[in-house]
Model the fold of this input.
Amino acid sequence: MRQVARNRRAQIVRFGRFLANRAVTLDELVAHWGERTRGAVAGRHVLALQDSSEIALHTREGRRRGLGEIAKGHGHGLLLHAMLALDAERGTCLGLVGGRLWTRQGRVTTAHRTRAPDEKESGRWLETGERAKTVLARAASVTVIADRESDIYDEWARLPAANFHLLTRCMQDRRLVDGASLYETGAGFAVADTITIELPARSSQRPARSARLALRFGRVAIRRPSGPARDLPDSVELTFVEAIECDPPPGAEPVHWRLLTTHDVPDARTAWRIVGWYKQRWTIEQLFRLLKSQGLQLEDSQLETAERLLKLAAVATQAAAIILQLVQAREGRTPEPADVAFSPPEIKTLDALVPTLEGKTALQKNPHPRHSLAWAAWVIAKLGGWDGYPRSTPPGPITFKLGVDRFKAIALGHALHNV
Done:
């Protein structure tokens, strides 16, 4: 909470009262995530990335703060499921769409297969996807992208609609209508193309490198497994796309993506486009890092109750999304307007701040078009301590975090109203 309130006593007290206010509900805070995103997506093809993350908080025996178990029982904290909207052509973040925040209340002893859909945590994938249909209604088309955990038959059967597609990495080797297995069938498709891609560094153990990938794709008909509700169709027709690394370097984990999608894939060019869209799923991992270790440090919070921690996490998730947008916009390479991240009153505050931050020389002026997101990023970076000179290292997440903290302090009255 101190990170949000900028360590000022009056603001900390005021923000604490805000989190304690019973009239401010968690559902309302999460529902607010998509408000600015609704307009930003108009007319675009949107990649709607969804994923979950555990937020580990310090507890000890006798002081669990009302937090349930995470990490398979090895810690306590919150669980966050979020959906993030990207422009499919540029990869720019358009804002949050929706999601869920919760903490577990004890251990579930009923077998997963016998539980009703609304009793399973996995229901968050379908629930958030349905929410996206409302928030992203003005988009020209939507592709919901997720990793393995979202490979759920209920989702394939219920969620797709006109111009509303799914793209998910395979969790399991499913049975097809003809009795064959998905992976066996995919391996039998002809290699359609090969290409070399650049893989970004994920950690010191997984440095950046080039990888040559072989591509296969084709139509498959997935058979309904025994578990899902009988009201679902007996089968679902999808496109299977497989990209597998040829001759990976010694000791490296080879790239092997098995993807399922509701998109039609008539040729190799379209299949590579599908692979490219899936690669952008990594952006939501950046959101979680900004929320935790590389930005807002939510896991360091000392709030005493799970109820307040959940509300804080909802506010912090939206702040992390704004920081992500600012990092992407800092060099002015995309034409996003400032209103994808800031409300009209906040943009007025930014306008008032520009003259106080600019110097007398051309190099000390804000170089970006007024009211563009890059223009706003320049202001926030200056508030965060960046010197503004083109030769300087571009501002990073921490600088933007400090700048957002200071900006929200300047416009605190409006920020609390906006939340």
User: Anything to note?
Assistant: The domain at 157-280 is CATH 3.90.350.10 (Transposase Inhibitor Protein From Tn5; Chain A, domain 1). The two ends are 15 Å apart (CA to CA). Strands lie at 45-56, 68-70, 75-87, 93-102, 141-146, 164-169, 193-199, 209-223, 235-245, 256-261. The longest helix spans residues 306-329.
